[in-house]
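so i finally got all the pieces together for this one. its two components total, 645 residues if u count the protein bits. some of the lines might not be protein, just check the labels. i wanna see the whole assembly predicted at once instead of chain by chain like last time, that was a mess tbh
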Amino acid sequence: MTEPGTEPIRVFLVDDHALFRSGVRAELDRVAEVTVVGEAGSVDEAVAAVRHVLPDVVLLDVHMPDGGGAEVLRQLRPELPDVVFLALSVSDAAEDVIAVIRAGARGYVTKTISGRDLAEAVRRVKSGDPVFSPRLAGFVLDVFSDRPGAAPPGDPELDLLTRRERDVLRLLARGYAYKEIAGELFISVKTVETHVSSVLRKTQLSNRYELSRWASDRRLV
Amino acid sequence: MTPARPRPATPPLARLRDGRLIAGVAGGVADHLGVQVLWVRITFVLLGVTGGVGFIAYVLLWILVRQERADVVRTLPRGERQQALGLAALAVGGGLAAAALGNTAVGWIVGPLGVALVGAAVVWREADEAQRRRWTAGARFGVASGGRNAVLRVVAGAVFVAVGIAVFLLGNLQMGQLQFALLAVLATLVGVAVITVPWWLKLVRDLGEERRERIVSSERAEIAAHLHDSVLQTLALIQRQSDQPREVLRLARGQERELRHWLYGPTGYGRGAAGEPVLDSGLADAITVAAAEVEDTYAIDVRPVVVGDRQLDDGLRALVLASREAMVNTAKHAEVGEVSVYVEVEADDVHVFVRDRGIGFDPLDVPTDRHGLADSVHGRMTRHGGTVRLRSSPGEGTEVHLRMPSDGAALAEDRPNTTQEAPT
């Protein structure tokens, strides 16, 4: 239930499957804190419509023709820094997830998520915290690991995770919620959110990902 | 998706239009092979002086190779024009001098060399991009830094060529010319073959690799066809059983798993590229299979997150079975629809966390007839030197932390132990 005085979060849907869009719309309509203010079925439509409608959060599909979610991010992020993008995809492959995070998405959820959890993720991402699914946490841990095949760290600011950040990521991968992580590590929820934001920033800016062997094998650079 | 950065392609053979001296043949050949123009010009000059082959080759290329498009602009460095003019003058002068001397002997040497060059040109034309790149890279690498073997090869080849020439010259003085001519030709060809041994080896290896790739891709096509069939089948079954939600859920989840596994592999990194060691029967795969079995049998949602991978050994096999037991335990007793599994492969050991948000229990209060967790999980782990840590409390879910050293690396303690903590 929305508290008196707060407006519902304005959400825009981008997905090339019309059936899926109507499904998500129906689910989100049941949640009072969120309203769907528009839909788009292609990259061009999305770019034009988001510029016009200026929503709070954009739910962005990853696999679309003409460049997909990453292309939408590339075109809109520079001119609309206040709009938050949450990737919503059927794929949970490392390439897709990391690519769209590095293009500027604030979080990644898979389409198997329930309506309630999706609304929660939208709320979280709107208030500035990244949404890390356990799988994304696993991928990020792998990128920043010291495993054979991982790239050596170049810039210690960007290419290394602190111990705390690593602990938080590991707990996220184990399926802990932020509150539970806070309880586990004896820190506040705000601190957990700060750590996760820092990890997101490093994932987006570090070049270690590009240099890791499996990324270059697939010519993802 | 991030687009791949394009690699520069070998330009097709075309005569230069802009920046040419006579007909742009040398420049075009140089661009195509990726070498400096000077070397190509020198080659033409040498071949032209010794028997006129160079002139013939130049004229043939002039006639047969088409000029490049008109919109390419080049700038010639200043010295290059003078250099080229000098070489051309040398060629003409040298050719006239050689003709005057009437020395057709050298033609016997140059003839087979010319044949070898034509053969190499044909092979080059037939090769595709990737092969050409590999050959030029291998050439620079092999000849420049191939070490003793390369040097020996080149020396042996040169010796053959020299012997060929010497034999011919000696023979020219007295005995039957034909015999020695043939010997000279043979020696020259053998010399060329010896020098180019690395290229032959690469050719053979390329053939083998191509065949292997073809086999792999046809295997994948078979699996894809099987997958398409099973997806269609599942969709048909779902339509038929649409009034039984549990069945529909099970069918849909099972098919989703199968398709995901084929598309993205057990860890989410997909079927590897040619060089990537995807462990088809490694730890990640084993855990995923165990999770799938539990999902199918107990109608609970299990989506494992795996970081890293490793080949299975006895200890890790026991770990997989113990993890499976922990998942089954959650399915049977936690009264919840979802369990999280997280697997982390570190340098010395492997950690598995099986966690749920179910009803939990007091570990100190387990009735003695409920042996499941104790025997199968603890027993399995400790027999191979691993540890188990269990955390649970009523109403707050359960987490089982399994740890197994890999490759027989021993734990710090002398004897394996298990600890049960009461949560704080």
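The two ends of chain A are 44 Å apart (CA to CA).
DSSP finds twelve helices and six strands in chain A.
anyway lmk what u think
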